[in-house]
């Protein structure tokens, strides 16, 4: 997370822990850090804590990082608290912003954690303000994600180009290219597929990489291939959020039975009851029921 790109030692624990986190192999990242936990640097520990948060094991972060911690690692405890108590997220963001303003943080942890939490709260513009002007590839990659969520593909492409100028072969630069290609659609989606496939072969398939491939297959109407890839993703993690959503979408597109679609929906509600997708679907369902009720009343009155 250092602010300037330096020559990386590809034999270092930090390199491997960082890269495993980027490709979505969160347990792999943790396993690289654990043997050195007692003497690990703040930056190395940050990838273990980010990975714990990614696999819904934030309680471990809270056990390792106490409230009186004086290092930037405190940011991950704040993130865990925000995920556990969404009603307190604005207060927690305020604490993080205070740290961003006054804390000298060579690891860039405060900035990344604050931006991630803003994204979690759908405040993408605020996240971009935190990350603006940074030449750190992690900050730039996160900015690309924000811009894509805001449907600013044009700006995302520009920023991706700057990442290529810094390090074209870097994992984050390659992933950013894939994200932009997916958002652009059509012929460029195949370019994204090749990037995900290359990482699967170079490292190992993860739900993140496999879902990237599945989205390409779905976008190009290769539904059988998408189903096979998503089935493989389920073997990596049976309750993966993105996999369940993509399976539900694919079931709709291929005319699967309502029972199949309902099964995926029930799993999403069970494992991710407070997620953006589930809450959004529930709100739309409630609005639809309300409109149906109003229409029914109006129809009754008309007939009377």
TrEMBL record:
Gene3D superfamilies: Tetratricopeptide repeat domain. It is a peripheral membrane protein. The keyword Cytoplasm applies. InterPro entries: Coatomer_esu, TPR-like_helical_dom_sf. Keywords: Cytoplasm, Cytoplasmic vesicle, ER-Golgi transport, Golgi apparatus, Membrane, Protein transport, Transport. The keyword Transport applies. It is found in: Cytoplasmic vesicle, COPI-coated vesicle membrane; Golgi apparatus membrane. GO terms for cellular component: COPI vesicle coat; Golgi membrane. GO terms for biological process: endoplasmic reticulum to Golgi vesicle-mediated transport; intra-Golgi vesicle-mediated transport; protein transport; retrograde vesicle-mediated transport, Golgi to endoplasmic reticulum. Transmembrane segments: none annotated. One of its GO terms (molecular function) is structural molecule activity. The coatomer is a cytosolic protein complex that binds to dilysine motifs and reversibly associates with Golgi non-clathrin-coated vesicles, which further mediate biosynthetic protein transport from the ER, via the Golgi up to the trans Golgi network. The coatomer complex is required for budding from Golgi membranes, and is essential for the retrograde Golgi-to-ER transport of dilysine-tagged proteins. Oligomeric complex that consists of at least the alpha, beta, beta', gamma, delta, epsilon and zeta subunits. Belongs to the COPE family. This is Coatomer subunit epsilon.
């Amino acid at each position: 997370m250092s602010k300037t790109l330096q020559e990386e030692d590809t034999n270092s624990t930090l390199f491997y822990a960082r890269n495993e986190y980027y490709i979505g192999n969160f347990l792999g990242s943790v396993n690289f850090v654990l043997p050195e936990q007692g003497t690990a640097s703040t930056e190395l520990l940050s990838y273990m804590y980010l990975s714990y948060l990614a696999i819904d094991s934030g309680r471990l972060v809270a056990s390792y990082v106490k409230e009186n911690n004086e290092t930037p690692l405190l940011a991950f405890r704040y993130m865990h608290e925000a995920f556990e108590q969404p009603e307190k997220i604005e207060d927690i963001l305020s604490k993080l912003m205070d740290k961003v303003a006054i804390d000298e943080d060579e690891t860039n942890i405060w900035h990344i954690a604050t931006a991630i939490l803003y994204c979690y709260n759908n405040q993408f513009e605020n996240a971009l303000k935190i990350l603006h002007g940074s030449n750190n590839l992690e900050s730039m990659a996160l900015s690309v994600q924000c811009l894509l969520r805001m449907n600013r593909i044009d700006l995302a492409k520009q920023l991706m180009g700057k990442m290529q100028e810094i390090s074209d072969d870097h994992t984050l630069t390659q992933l950013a290219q894939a994200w932009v290609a997916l958002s652009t659609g059509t012929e460029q989606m195949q370019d994204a597929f090749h990037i995900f496939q290359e990482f699967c072969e170079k490292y190992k398939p993860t739900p993140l990489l496999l879902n990237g491939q599945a989205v390409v297959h779905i976008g190009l109407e290769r539904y059988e291939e998408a189903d096979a890839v998503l089935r493989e993703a389920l073997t990596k993690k049976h309750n993966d959020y993105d996999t369940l959503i993509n399976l539900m979408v694919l079931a709709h597109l291929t005319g699967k039975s309502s029972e199949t679609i309902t099964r995926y929906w029930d799993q999403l509600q069970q494992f991710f009851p407070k997620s953006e997708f589930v809450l959004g679907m529930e709100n739309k369902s409630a609005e639809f029921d309300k409109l149906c009720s109003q229409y029914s009343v109006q129809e009754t009155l008309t007939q009377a």
